[in-house]
TrEMBL record:
Species in which this protein is naturally found: Cynara cardunculus var. scolymus (Globe artichoke)
Signal peptide: none
InterPro entries reported in the protein's UniProt record: Glyco_transf_N, UDP_glucos_trans, UDP_glycos_trans_CS
UniProt-recorded name of the protein: Glycosyltransferase
Domain Glycosyltransferase N-terminal residue range list: 9-42
Phylogenetic lineage: Eukaryota, Viridiplantae, Streptophyta, Embryophyta, Tracheophyta
Source taxon at top rank: Eukaryota
Amino acid sequence: MEKAYEGHVVVLPYPSQGHINPLLQFAKRLASKGLKATIATTHYTLSSISAPSVTVEPISDGFDHGGYAQAQSEKLFLDSFKTNGSRTLTQLIKKHQTTTHPITCIVYDSFLPWALEVAKENGILGGAFFTNSATVSAIFSRIHDGTLRLPVRLEDCPVVLPGIPPLNLEDLPSFLNAPESYPAYLEMKLKQFSNLEKADWIFSNTFQELEPQVVKRWGEQWPVKLIGPMVPSTYLDERIEGDKGYGASLWKPLDYECTKWLETKSQNSVVYISFGSMVSLTQQEMEEIAWGLQRSGFDFLWVVRDSERHKLPKGFLEFTIQNQKKGMIVNWCNQLEILAHRSVGCFVTHCGWNSTLEGLSLGVPMVGIPKWADQLTDAKFIKDVWRVGGKVTVDGELGIVKREDVVTCLNEVMNEGKMGLEIKKNVRKWKELAKEAISEGGSSDKAIDEFVVAIKTFARKQRCLI
């Protein structure tokens, strides 16, 4: 017999790894609390998603065989996704109307505000899910309402917004001083707020203790529910059995090879480096980071995508191949398992929000090398607000990080000096606070419970109307 559910939530992510992961994790949390949870994703990403408790259904972005890469244009892709996504999401809702579990609510990635219109047209609830930090979301909210005007120039800094520490130009999302550089992306960021007042819920992948002042001030404008960190349960509260990974991977990880190598290392001795799925460094910057790693003397595990491998300096590759006990280069691995390993003492990261939350949740000190968008703001908080790591300085003339600064940051974070000890103490504190927030009775857990109760109530009313 089919399981009886008290509500059915469709979760709709933007189809990239950094957006699928937290929304899929939210779907698993909802399923663990008795709701039927479905991920609606594009045909191109459909086969990459698998979670035992969550149903996966396809919708169309108009580029079913290649996704964004097939479109080769941000604007073309987003326009097509709106048209085809609205049509096929509506079909999905209608498909379930006559079943024992009609769809009650759509929780949509805030990058896709058209999904809220689909929900309202079909008489169901809608909630926006913000995948950035509350701070970054608040910054774009201020741009949308005209409080913060673009472009932001050097003479306008520091920028002071309610609840947010003063931000210099290098701390702001990268294209705020050159909005013409990524027009489609900026438009997408601002459209998150275009119909937000119609949303029944607004979710943010953060937690109360992490950004209290910005949440308080942003919450005066928008009633935000903080439900993070959306990190698999095994690494936090352990209440979802077997939840060791997100359940979505557009790449094939090399778990065994990585963990076998890490097992040979002493505690907190390895520097783990990963710049995520999207960041592409210049060859010169790859060389500086590579030689900085070698010069630091620390053992390292570096994730370098196949498309980026040719940028590594030949001498460095030879050094790594000949000294496999010292360093290892792989094209992908399970980041959560690596960060959780006892031998990892530092995470060199691009400071994407998911990676930042993972570093905090697993208690790993970080060294930030942010490249664009929200990464710059996240790096500011890592270094100066939460004080859980460092940030490599960018050379003003060359616009890249230099090997000397890489070495300096690694030494500060990895060694047992005054700064290193403070960073390690702080990151342990945030690990406990993250676990507390999502555990039973924690602030994020309560927020999710409130949503679940509301969905079950609405579902009962739905059944009475049938």
